[in-house]
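Appendix C: a fully annotated inverse folding record. The material below is reproduced so that readers can follow the format used throughout the book. The structure is listed first as C-alpha cells, followed by the designed sequence.
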C-alpha cells in the first residue's frame, strides 16, 4: 500500500489528520497512533480505541457484607416488597454490600437501588414483579422512548446513585404477557390481545411528545391516566453500574436502559422477552459502556443505542458515546446492533466485534434508523468480525424511519466502517435509503460476504461507498 493509499484509507476510517491521533474518551486529549503498511493494520490501530474504552470504565466495588432478604421478612410466595427495600436501606446505611435474594420465588413491587448496593440473586432465585400498575407509583423521573417525564417507576430503578449492581445466577421476571402490560401497546404485529382504545399507549404517548416539543418542564409532564409501560432496569444519571449474570424475562417494555449514566458494564446477561418493545439493552445518552457475552432473544431490537427524541434529545444534547459491544449472541429481534431511532443527541465512538446473529425471526443485522425530525450526528461507528447465520436484511441505514423526511434536522452518518462481516443467508443484503438532499455517505465496507442472498436490496440516495472485497453469492460485488 502506498503512502497516499494509507492516508486515504485512514481518512475513510476517521483517523487521518491530527497526526493520526485517536479521539479522547473525555474529548480533551489524544492517544497517538503510528501509521501502518496495510488496511488491516490500520484497522488494528483503530481498534486499540475499543480496548482503551474498556480500560477506562471505572469498576464497581462492594463491601463484603450480605443482607439476606429473608432476614428482613421476605418469604416465598408472598409480597416481599417491604422486606427487600428494608434490606436495601440497611445495606446502604451500613456502607454497602450485597442484598441477597436466596433460592425461591419472591414477589415484589418496584425495587429502588441505592449507592454501594449490589442486588444479588443466587442460583434458583426468582424475583417476580407484580404486573399491577398502581404499585409503580408515585411517579419518578424517568425517560420513555427518549422523552423525559414523571412516569411509572421502572421495575428496578436507581436515580443519581453510584456504585450499584444487579448480579447473580437468578431470574428477574417482569410478568409481561398478552393479558398484562403488553396490551397497552395497542395494535402490534398480529395483535395477540383484545384491543382496548381506553388503555392504548397513544393516549399518553401523543400528549407526552407534544409536551416535549412545546418545551413543557419535565415536572409538569404528569398524567392521571398513564399507559406507558415501564422499562425493567433503568439506572438514571448513575455512575459505575454493573448488571451481570442474571436472566431477564417478560419485560413490560425495554429490558436494560441506562440513561445519562457513566461507566456501565452489562455482562453475561440473558435477555429473553418477546413482547412489544422488548428491546434487550438500550443505553441512552450514556458514556463508557461495555456490553459483552450476553444473549438476546427479544421482541424488538437486541441492542439499540439512543440519545433522546427530537426536541427533548436536542434539549439535553448528550450523545451515547464510547460504547463497546463484544462476544454477544443475537437471536430473534427487529435488529442485532442498532442505532436509533431516538438519536437526536447523536452517537459517537461505537464499537461492535465478535458477535453472532441468527434467527428466522431476526429482521435486520446492522441497523441505523433515523429521519429529518430526529436529526443527530452518528459518527465513528466501527463493526467487525460479525457472523450472521440467517437474517432478513443484513445492513440497513434508513433515513425514512417513522416520520421520514418531515423535518429540518438532517441526519448525518460519518465514518461507519464494517469489516469482516459474513452473512450465510439473507433475503436482502442492503436497505440503504438516504435523502436526495442528504444522501448517505461516510460508509466503508471491507471483506463483506453475502451468501444465499436473494437480492442486493435497496440502494437509494447513497454517495460513493469505500469498498474492498465484497461478494454476493460467491461473485464479486461492486456497488
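Designed amino acids, in order:
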Amino acid at each position: 500500500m502506498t503512502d497516499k493509499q494509507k492516508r486515504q484509507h485512514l481518512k475513510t476510517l476517521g483517523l487521518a489528520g491530527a497526526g493520526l491521533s485517536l479521539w479522547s474518551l473525555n474529548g480533551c486529549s489524544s492517544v497517538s497512533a503510528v501509521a501502518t503498511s496495510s488496511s488491516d493494520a490500520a484497522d488494528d490501530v483503530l481498534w486499540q480505541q475499543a480496548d482503551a474504552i474498556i480500560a477506562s470504565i471505572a469498576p464497581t466495588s462492594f463491601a463484603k457484607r450480605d443482607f439476606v432478604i429473608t432476614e428482613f421478612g421476605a418469604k416465598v410466595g408472598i409480597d416481599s416488597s417491604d422486606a427487600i427495600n428494608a434490606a436495601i436501606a440497611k445495606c446502604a446505611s451500613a456502607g454497602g454490600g450485597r442484598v441477597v435474594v436466596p433460592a425461591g420465588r419472591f414477589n415484589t413491587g418496584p425495587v429502588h437501588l441505592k449507592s454501594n448496593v449490589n442486588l444479588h440473586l443466587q442460583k434458583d432465585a426468582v424475583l417476580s414483579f407484580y404486573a399491577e400498575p398502581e404499585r409503580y407509583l408515585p411517579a419518578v423521573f424517568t425517560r420513555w422512548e427518549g422523552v423525559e417525564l414523571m412516569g411509572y417507576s421502572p421495575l428496578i430503578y436507581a436515580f443519581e446513585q453510584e456504585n450499584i449492581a444487579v448480579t447473580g445466577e437468578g431470574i428477574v421476571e417482569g410478568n409481561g404477557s398478552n393479558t398484562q402490560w403488553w396490551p397497552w401497546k395497542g395494535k402490534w404485529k398480529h395483535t395477540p390481545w383484545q384491543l382496548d382504545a381506553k388503555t392504548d399507549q397513544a393516549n399518553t404517548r401523543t400528549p407526552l411528545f407534544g409536551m416535549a416539543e412545546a418545551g413543557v418542564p419535565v415536572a409538569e409532564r404528569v398524567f392521571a391516566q398513564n399507559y406507558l409501560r415501564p422499562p425493567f432496569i433503568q439506572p438514571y444519571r448513575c455512575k459505575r453500574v454493573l448488571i451481570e449474570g442474571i436472566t431477564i424475562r417478560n419485560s413490560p417494555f425495554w429490558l436494560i436502559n441506562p440513561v445519562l449514566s457513566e461507566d456501565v458494564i452489562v455482562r453475561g446477561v440473558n435477555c429473553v422477552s418477546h413482547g412489544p418493545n422488548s428491546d434487550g439493552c438500550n443505553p441512552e445518552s450514556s458514556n463508557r459502556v461495555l456490553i459483552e457475552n450476553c444473549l438476546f432473544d427479544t421482541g424488538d431490537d437486541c441492542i439499540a443505542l439512543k440519545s433522546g427524541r427530537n426536541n427533548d434529545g436536542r434539549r439535553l444534547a448528550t450523545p451515547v458515546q464510547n460504547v463497546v459491544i463484544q462476544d454477544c449472541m443475537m437471536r430473534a429481534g427487529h435488529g442485532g446492533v442498532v442505532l436509533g431511532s431516538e438519536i437526536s443527541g447523536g452517537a459517537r465512538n461505537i464499537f461492535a466485534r465478535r458477535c453472532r446473529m441468527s434467527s428466522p425471526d431476526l429482521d435486520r443485522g446492522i441497523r441505523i434508523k433515523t429521519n429529518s425530525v430526529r436529526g443527530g450526528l452518528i459518527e465513528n461507528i466501527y463493526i467487525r468480525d460479525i457472523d450472521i447465520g440467517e437474517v432478513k436484511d443484513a445492513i440497513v441505514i434508513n433515513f425514512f424511519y417513522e416520520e421520514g423526511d418531515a423535518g429540518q434536522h438532517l441526519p448525518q452518518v460519518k465514518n461507519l466502517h464494517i469489516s469482516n462481516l459474513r452473512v450465510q443467508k439473507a433475503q436482502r443484503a442492503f436497505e440503504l435509503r438516504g435523502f436526495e438532499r442528504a444522501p448517505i455517505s461516510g460508509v466503508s465496507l471491507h471483506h463483506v460476504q453475502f451468501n444465499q442472498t436473494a437480492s442486493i436490496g435497496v440502494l437509494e440516495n447513497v454517495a460513493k461507498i469505500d469498498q474492498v472485497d465484497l461478494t454476493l453469492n460467491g461473485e464479486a460485488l461492486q456497488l
